[in-house]
Amino acid sequence: MANPKIFSLILFSVFAIASAKVFFEERFEDGWENKWVVSDWKKDENTAGVWNYTSGKWNGDPNDKGIQTSEDYRFYAISAEFPKFSNKDQTLVFQFSVKHEQKLDCGGGYMKLLSGEVDQKKFGGDTPYSIMFGPDICGYSTKKVHAILNYNETNHLIKKEVPCETDQLSHGYEDIPKEIPDPDAKKDDSELYVYPDLGYVGIELWQESKEDPADSDAEDEADDAEGEDSDAETKAGGTSEDADDNDEDEFHDEL
């Protein structure tokens, strides 16, 4: 049985391209724990994991550290607050880098941006969020990136199948991928992309052996998002395929 530890040397960056303003960045240097709050989520079930602060097994600099999960069959949640801002009229970039120190059997790590007021000690899989993305890996069949956007209190799962990296190297992207606007896309709300009250970043992570997989809260959210989309499309009339295409076009145009 493998012990899949996810080592997150998270260069957390949240910034806007238009103004080149960095709203939040974390390199996990000395004093990082003063900014982050470890959640009590799952402690009452004795399934809450403990974060390690380490440079990992393979590093070029022992002082270049990150946070690392410590054991299997555990849930992990941690969050940090930053000054609230709105992404209106700005291209928002939310990115991180991660290194898997061992080959993964089953696990998921989700980065979330949250709005409003959040009880950080209770932050977990059921906490409402604005934006969520991250890898979901289980066996050979599931190796993808989840991406969910909340609009009008409904979660919308990305319609594309985005593969994720599964090797033991560090991964991050320096360049921002360019999108070509779709002139035929239908827009039902000019401020579809706007999150006016972003103020927290959170990490929600679960891992276990593929021989005895537990359900992921994020997987449930994704299923709910797909179900909500389907229900909305049925009520609105027309085919679900057409509605799905419209949803995807709207989000890609605005974000």
Automatic annotation (TrEMBL):
<feature type="compositionally biased region" description="Acidic residues">
    <location>
        <begin position="214"/>
        <end position="231"/>
    </location>
</feature>
<feature type="signal peptide">
    <location>
        <begin position="1"/>
        <end position="20"/>
    </location>
</feature>
<protein>
    <recommendedName>
        <fullName>Calreticulin</fullName>
    </recommendedName>
</protein>
<keyword id="KW-0256">Endoplasmic reticulum</keyword>
<keyword id="KW-0143">Chaperone</keyword>
<feature type="region of interest" description="Disordered">
    <location>
        <begin position="204"/>
        <end position="255"/>
    </location>
</feature>
<dbReference type="InterPro" id="IPR013320">
    <property type="entry name" value="ConA-like_dom_sf"/>
</dbReference>
<dbReference type="InterPro" id="IPR001580">
    <property type="entry name" value="Calret/calnex"/>
</dbReference>
<comment type="function">
    <text>Molecular calcium-binding chaperone promoting folding, oligomeric assembly and quality control in the ER via the calreticulin/calnexin cycle. This lectin may interact transiently with almost all of the monoglucosylated glycoproteins that are synthesized in the ER.</text>
</comment>
<feature type="compositionally biased region" description="Acidic residues">
    <location>
        <begin position="241"/>
        <end position="255"/>
    </location>
</feature>
<keyword id="KW-0732">Signal</keyword>
<dbReference type="InterPro" id="IPR018124">
    <property type="entry name" value="Calret/calnex_CS"/>
</dbReference>
<comment type="similarity">
    <text>Belongs to the calreticulin family.</text>
</comment>
<dbReference type="Pfam" id="PF00262">
    <property type="entry name" value="Calreticulin"/>
</dbReference>
